Amino acid sequence: MWLGLLLALGGWAAGAAMAAQPGAPGGILIPVTGPIGPATSDFFVRQLRSANDEGAELVVMTLDTPGGLDTAMRTMVQAILASEVPVIAYVAPSGARAASAGTYLLYASHVAAMAPATNLGAATPVHIGPGGASRPAADDTLAHKAINDAAAYLRGLATLRGRNVAWSEQAVREASSLSADEAAREHVIDLVATDLPTLLKAIDGRSVKLRSREVTLHTAGLVLRERTPDWRTEFLSLITNPNVAYLLMLIGIYGLLLEGYHPGSVAPGVVGAICLLLALFAFQVLSVSYTGLGLIALGVLLIVAESFVPSYGALGVGGIAAFVIGSVMLLDRHVPGFSIARTLIAAMAFVGALALLGLVSFAVRARRRPVVSGTEGLLRETAEAVESFEREGRVRAHGEIWSAVSREPVRQGERLRIVAVKGLTLEVQPVRK
After folding, report:
1. Per CATH, which fold does 24-230 belong to?
2. Above 90 in pLDDT, residue 202?
3. Which one of 23, 40, 85, 360 is least enclosed by Cβ atoms within 10 Å?
4. Is 100 a catalytic residue?
């Protein structure tokens, strides 16, 4: 048995060592699909760095994206420009697109190719305006700065790669788009290829200029090894999903509030702190309106305050209004794939409204209930036996220890009904179910 276990461990260690060794020189295929965000950027940069370390001959990046976050795109572009391995950007399969941020990645790559029936362009940056509303906004100074910066950035990439500089301006300033054939004709891309083998055959013998040298591609019959997202990428993609980050923030806020109102619960505080930190990390890398974030926090606090300062709905209604407005403003809806679903906002507002309705109804019932204090108030309460006794002993009522008498034997921890108050002594009897 032990020998078998040792052999199994030895085989596992050998396999791990082989997996850790750099792969044989060849091509690396890195798929980039969906909105470009922190997870996509992190995955691509790590795989491109790995390809450089392994001495791969080239990297093929397949693109199908509606765009994404500017910061994530620029990180990827910087990695491509610094790479000592040629990067081939290929918009595929047919029907795919390289819109907005994808256009910058195409221009940055050493070779740009597209499959038939694909398109690129619409590279105008969006701008978060007052209140978190996002728009191209060509009428204010901040918008002009953003558009001029993006145009200069794409123009610089076009000049570096020897591609159509004039159209790069149109893509940014006029949100122009081109089909694959039009892009090849306008010299925005290098070629149109129906599939990967055709692409590799077409670029065989082509010379490309890297950061410090010029290389000739030898790609005919080259084997590409595809890299798939690992657990880190999947986890980062999950928590930076706007809907998940939004829920994490709400769980975090409510968890910490619950811990504050019930000290010692521990679990709500721990879960709330973890969720809130994950949400703040996600918001740090997403396009967030902090006005919206503040309104959400204010709305939650107003709803909670309704239970402590009954206003018959005034605080709660204001809290729900602030919550909904803040949720709508929180993220930039014009960045593809990075907005909160309106149905989720409506569901959370509905839950808040139900909680508010419960608080208001409770306050109304409490107001109608006659207020009784002193001896009469004690007669309506129950007590708990601190110890077992036959006739006389001690009980806990209203959080205080009282002397008590009973006509029946009492067990420790038993619930008792207060039937009379004689000075500082309570007359009790066991509660019979």
Report:
1. 2-enoyl-CoA Hydratase; Chain A, domain 1 (3.90.226)
2. yes
3. 23
4. yes
